[in-house]
Amino acid sequence: MARDIRIALVGFGNVGRRFAEKLRGPYARVLREHGLHARVTGIATAHHGIAVDTRGIELGRALRLVAGGPHRTRNGLEGANRPLDRLHHGRPLADVRAFIARVPADVLIEVTTLDPRSGRPAIDYVRQALGRGLHVITSNKGPVAFALGPLRRLAARKKTLLLHEGAVMDGTPVFNLGARVLSFRGTLNSTSNLVLSRMEEGTTASAALRLAQRLGIAEADPRHDLDGWDAAVKGCALANALMGAAVRPQQVRRTGMAHVTALEARRALRAGTRLRLVVRGERKDGRVRVRVAPERIPFGDPLAGSGPDAALVFETDLMGEIGVLERGASLDQTAYALVSDLLRIARER
Ligand SMILES: NC(=O)c1ccc[n+]([C@@H]2O[C@H](COP(=O)([O-])OP(=O)(O)OC[C@H]3O[C@@H](n4cnc5c(N)ncnc54)[C@H](OP(=O)(O)O)[C@@H]3O)[C@@H](O)[C@H]2O)c1
């Protein structure tokens, strides 16, 4: 007999929608194989409305409704028509905070836009849901980079789980190593990997960036990909989750790659190297430091992949050096991270 698991989604953009699409097919099957029957009982967004339905929202309908975006109304107002509101049953909800307070759910999946300067309001949403006793899964690195310690302590007090496998390298398992991480280096921003790789082939940076946006892998504001902020936030998420640090993105020594020219990328290639935006985390004088900068990586090094491939090399206490490679970063991989976290909740609770 399958166990029911009720899911509330906060955020229904690239990741939320891909998760919902797959939950109608392959993910439902995987969850069933693990004895789970998943039902999405609520979806909240910034501009596409809010819906709660205890019986389970019809996901095909929700996806069709949001496909056209916030519609133009008869009197010409953009964004005034919040399509998901049409699926709502029950008392109206004023905002996302009211949604989190009332949605009937076991797990809140937080997949809102990253604010790389503050991590808000994602941190507040996660805190509110944990405080209510819900398990929380997020693919947003903001809460992990800015507030992991307090959020973990709150989860422990409430006996709930806070999982964030999708926050770095999508569905590739990086937060479940077991061993102690002494240092790491990685090419963690798929957009800058793709842009630099295309520049090596002669494509302009702006055309390559448009491709990343079409693939849905660029941040909502792609300047955060190119100026190293996204990599800095991911570096902090890793340092805080795996090295016991409390580093803030503002403390990261950061040089972006927006100034790198196609000529430099091709020159690096001719010299047997690839220019990549590298994030490093190291312990020095008892403190963990994170830095981000473009580096020339020799061919053969795990970080010298082509395309959007992300790579991460850890130096660990028990396994020595180990590497994780993500081939062709895609939304499927991020959406799968949410499933792997759901399975972990089922195993542990
Ligand atoms: N895309 C990827 O490949 C990828 C990979 C790994 C991790 N991530 C992370 O996953 C998260 C989601 O990414 P995404 O690509 O799905 O983003 P997205 O397409 O921009 O979608 C964000 C969703 O969050 C909603 N939202 C934004 N601000 C909100 C707020 N203040 N309150 C409630 N809802 C809000 C948006 O609502 P409206 O649409 O109505 O404005 C939208 O539904 C981000 O944190 C991102 O960094 C993404």
Structural features, described:
The chain is 37% helix and 24% strand. It is of the alpha/beta class and 349 residues long. Strands 3-2-1-6-7-8 form a six-stranded mixed β-sheet, sandwiched between helices. It binds NADP nicotinamide-adenine-dinucleotide phosphate.
Quick structural summary:
The protein has helices spanning 14-23, 26-33, 59-67, 96-102, 122-131, 141-158, 190-200, 205-214, 223-226, 229-242, 262-270, 331-348; strands at 3-10, 36-44, 50-52, 71-72, 78-81, 107-110, 135-138, 162-163, 181-187, 253-254, 273-284, 287-298, 310-316, 320-326. 37% of the residues lie in helices and 24% in strands.
Q: Radius of gyration over alpha carbons?
A: 20 Å
Could you tell me the number of beta strands? 14
Count, helices: 12
End-to-end separation in angstroms reads 17 Å
Summarize the topology:
Blueprint: E1 3-10, H1 14-23, H2 26-33, E2 36-44, E3 50-52, H3 59-67, E4 71-72, E5 78-81, H4 96-102, E6 107-110, H5 122-131, E7 135-138, H6 141-158, E8 162-163, E9 181-187, H7 190-200, H8 205-214, H9 223-226, H10 229-242, E10 253-254, H11 262-270, E11 273-284, E12 287-298, E13 310-316, E14 320-326, H12 331-348
Bound molecules: NADP nicotinamide-adenine-dinucleotide phosphate (NAP).
What are the salient characteristics of this protein?
6-stranded mixed β-sheet, 37% helix, globular, binds NADP nicotinamide-adenine-dinucleotide phosphate, 12 helices, 349 residues, alpha/beta, 14 strands, 24% strand, single chain
